[in-house]
Amino acid sequence: xxxxxxxxxxxxxxxxxxxxxxxxxxxxxxxxxxxxxxxxxxxxxxxxxxxxxxxxxxxxxxxxxxxxxxxxxxxxxxxxxxxxxxxxxxxxxxxxxxxxxxxxxxxxxxxxxxxxxxxxxxxxxxxxxxxxxxxxxxxxxxxxxxxxxxxxxxxxxxxxxxxxxxxxxxxxxxxxxxxxxxxxxxxxxxxxxxxxxxxxxxxxxxxxxxxxxxxxxxxxxxxxxxxxxxxxxxxxxxxxxxxxxxxxxxxxxxxxxxxxxxxxxxxxxxxxxxxxxxxxxxxxxxxxxxxxxxxxxxxxxxxxxxxxxxxxxxxxxxxxxxxxxxxxxxxxxxxxxxxxxxxxxxxxxxxxxxxxxxxxxxxxxxxxxxxxxxxxxxxxxxxxxxxxxxxxxxxxxxxxxxxxxxxxxxxxxxxxxxxxxxxxxxxxxxxxxxxxxxxxxxxxxxxxxxxxxxxxxxxxxxxxxxxxxxxxxxxxxxxxxxxxxxxxxxxxxxxxxxxxxxxxxxxxxxxxxxxxxxxxxxxxxxxxxxxxxxxxxxxxxxxxxxxxxxxxxxxxxxxxxxxxxxxxxxxxxxxxxxxxxxxxxxxxxxxxxxxxxxxxxxxxxxxxxxxxxxxxxxxxxxxxxxxxxxxxxxxxxxxxxxxxxxxxxxxxxxxxxxxxxxxx
RNA sequence: GGGGUUGUAGCUCAGUCGGUUAGAGUGCCAGCCUGUCACGCUGGAAGUCGCGGGUUCGAGCCCCGUCAACCCCGCCA
Length: 664
Description:
The protein is α+β, with helices and mostly antiparallel strands.
């Protein structure tokens, strides 16, 4: 097809803007063909641009035959320039903002054709049948044409502008910090960048500009903000990508409340973008209470039901499992969720079994429950429920005649994990989670440190520059696990959307902190020498926080995956399906960077004989299965490739003449 | 690192107990249609049942392996 040049064709109006006021005007429009409807001698075409859709119309009796033919040759997603006259429609469409008018075609330019899209470019309003996400990501440039994603990206842009406006009016300045920086030993895995000019040395991409923003306070900027990209080489989730955007904030001469007071009105404005009213000040919830009541450090408080401690009710029970907890002096507790209502009481055996599977998956042994429904009490431990106990339990249902109590027994960490998850699931199932509103809160007084079994030492909960709570300072040496931090998370609807702290601003406390973390003098010098130096040159009291922009926008648009608000996201395996990154590079590039890859190294060779076992011990099952595989159609002396213990290996088999074998 | 779900036409999916030529909707192509707007009507093309093995007279369906996407646990200062 002969394509037209853009030439001096100039847009006079945006497609979504045309109204009755424009009737009679000659307009020049640009855009993509959303869909055409050919009725023979009457043709309609929907022209889409970023601002909307307008109907183009051509009638056989009013138009040159070659122009009509040209219009009929247009297919979906062709790129067009349309000249025409705005007229009032004969049949109006109330579902379209431009539905009162249409444009009578007088000239048509076809700037480009388009192959049939491999994914629907329209939002399937009623069927809801989107293309699979892998296809959407492969053809992301088409996916992003869909109105819903266009709206999400536009809202994201609005959020960014609003954030910058907000901080600008509060005298913050935006400062860019390095993308190529120093690898930090604590925390998440770094993405590394080899240095060509320094053989064997590496930059790291920032997990966050944490130290730079603190140094900017030492420099005296007092109020810093940056919307910046951060990188973490950890496994992904629906709300976690390897690169993500953070609204990074740091202030001098502030207390915790000062930081929060800057953030809250911003959140009010952002929620307002999607018509949500939220009141300030936000609720403050100590970490300890969050874990006790909600089993989570990022509770969704839109459900009022809290976890309750029912240990005492079982002190004299015959139910050994629960009584043992009551006798453990707080080591183990019986905690429970009490959902009142007919829906809760009508939970079927099958549903409870599904719930039990969830609980087991989270580490519970089972899911004890007691339920009051149409048939009265039913319970997994009914024979231990005396009338007195039943009365005591039922009293937890706030006087309702029907309801469900699910129990978890164990350490606080165990029971919190199980009940925290079940609380959300049950609340949704019973309609006791109001998903129409936004619930912000601050979780405060986080612990400073937690014991790491893996590292056999204390590690920082937030980061090693977080200020210990002034009242707990001396616990650093005596009982580090009990020391609170001046750290706070901003939580929205069960998601952590921000986190921050007051920082350590004196070298002495910072050194004590490093000592507690088991970071020696020399190591601290080599890794954080620049910070320790800076703290000796007049560092002001400081604090700040960082907001997860992707998560925030995700919640604003009502999505459950941050991929829906990132233009070009990566898959759960941290791959870009569109560009196919990451990919192999030319060996010359590696050589220049002084890098050698150990991936794809030659497979190890194994020698295997034939073994016979009456019963196969567990530790031999994998090699035994390998031998079984080999025994099918493999000659006594042969080489074959198979999977052994999850690794692809080349296996040489030879008949060794006896029950002997060698495996490494 | 571990667990789970999914993979069939361009797209979204169905496919019974393992049994004849693998279906539907949509999209695409062609024809008809003067008020459509998820246009309608008629016809047509369209398949490596993710990939590789195995069992079987016979596999989309059963078994083993593998790849990919998604969800979760670990991990994410």
